[in-house]
Amino acid sequence: MVQHLLLALSMQKRVAAVSRNGRKKYVKVFRYLFARRSIALYLASCFVLAGSPGYAPAKAPHFRTIVINNTQLRRDVNGDIIDAHDGCLQFFEGRYYLYGTAYGKSAGYGINNRFRVYSSPDLVRWRFDGEILESPPDGVYYRPYVAYNPTTRKYVLWYNWYPQLWDGQVGAAVSDTPVGPFAIVNPKVQLSQAKDRPGDGSLFVDEDGTGYFMYSVIGQDHAIRIERLAPDFLGSTGEVSDMLGKGCEAPALFRRGKRYYALFDSTCCFCPAGSGARVLTASKPLGPYTQLRNINRDTNGKPIVAGQQTFVARIPTSEGVEYIWMADRWGSRPDGLKGHDFQYWSSPLQFAPDGNIAPIKWVGEWKLSIELGESTPQSKLPYQWPRKKDPHPLKVDPCSGVALPAEE
Question: Which of 148, 218, 159 has the alpha carbon at shortest distance from 188?
């Protein structure tokens, strides 16, 4: 193709150099070359890109070895403790984004739970970029998951919320940027199991750009299902998997090679003891799935890491993509504030040829050579979701039965 391109350009110069009458034979050859679809498309793309404002060749990735520490609370660049739980970690537009629910001083059951995003170029220096859900109706909000839709070029947020506990619903919102704020498009997504009150859920986008939502169904004894999304990721196609398990929550779905992995385990309800992470695999995102081992339970059935799974992050590294298991360590806060609970990030998951994943190990500190992201300035003031007085505050913790203090 390069030879054809050079020949075409050479012919163009020769045509310009000869007389009007002598150009005819060259014009015929020139038109023939440009009639070749492959050359025409190639030339068009070159000329369009070269003339586009801000066009520049793709930069080669840079890598740096960083340290992940699970024994110290993560802080942002202002020194504030990061309050982002039961969400996800994504790599968008050359920068890392950590999404989660901020609980602050609450017990986690009121209308003032917040969805927050922090961003970083290196998983170490974190910047608070604001609260991400714009003007939500009153309710109790959990589990924000954000994905990029390659067709609409929008960032899409899915979340679990309850107008009243435990009247489970799922909402969808969109934004032009990873930091939002996200505008609610569909506050009550009509999933195939919507009548049975959806609970915890998480997003997954396949290599072909198809979106999926994996979630628990409260009214079906917390059954786990996977549902294919509409092309714009704002609704469901109605295609749904078989039941993958019961009595479970906190699901995560990802792909490695030709295998799809579905991870979840028993309901936890902010349990300090943590929960497991049973692993199921399939050759298709909707299954059928085969259960393998539980990677966060020891031989006695006790959680290895006292945390509840929230996500499996794909991190670009010098050795290729690594998969990091993330879990919230409920009740681990050293100062008694729920928003200061630790979040555990595992060292890279280890995969066997048969698809099995090695059990999680408690690692206080570990290193990884990651792809460095962009150190971009903050483009705008962080959006803040105004606090409200809860008209129906809970007086008793529904998990422990312990009396709750009045919310400040």
Answer: 159
What CA–CA distance (Å, rounded) separates 202 from 157? Answer: 10
**DSSP for 250-268?**
EEEEEEETTEEEEEEEE--
d(CA 254, CA 260): 6
Can you read off the two tokens belonging to residue 329? 């360590």
Give residue for tokens 């890392």. Answer: 96
Instruction: Give the pLDDT band of residue 399 (cuts 50, 70, 90).
Output: confident
pLDDT value of residue 55: 41
- Residue 132: what are its φ and ψ, rounded to 5°? -110, -15
CA pair distance 266, 245, nearest whole angstrom? 9
Q: Is the pLDDT of residue 45 over 60?
A: no
Residues 6+ apart with CB under 8 A from 259: 281, 282, 283, 355
As a whole number, mean pLDDT of residues 130-149 equals 96
| Sheet of 308-317, strand order | 63-69, 365-371, 308-317, 320-329, 342-345
- At 4 the pLDDT is 42
* Separation between Cα atoms, residue 79 and residue 68, nearest integer Å: 17
Cis bond upstream, residue 303 (ω within 30): no
- Residue 132 gets the label, from left (phi > 0), alpha (psi -120 to 50) or beta, of alpha
CA distance 349 to 251: 17
CB 247 within 8 A of CB 267: yes
Mean pLDDT across 163-173: 96
- Nearest residue to 289 (alpha-carbon basis) of 312, 311, 262, 266: 262
- The type of residue at 33 is L
Q: Which class does domain 63-371 fall in?
A: mainly beta
101-134 tens-digit pLDDT: 999 999 999 999 999 999 999 999 999 999 999 9
CA 386 to chain centre: 25
**C-alpha to C-alpha distance for 251 and 146, rounded to whole angstroms:** 15
Query: Which residues does 194 contact at the CB level (< 8 Å), separation at least 6?
Result: 169, 170, 188
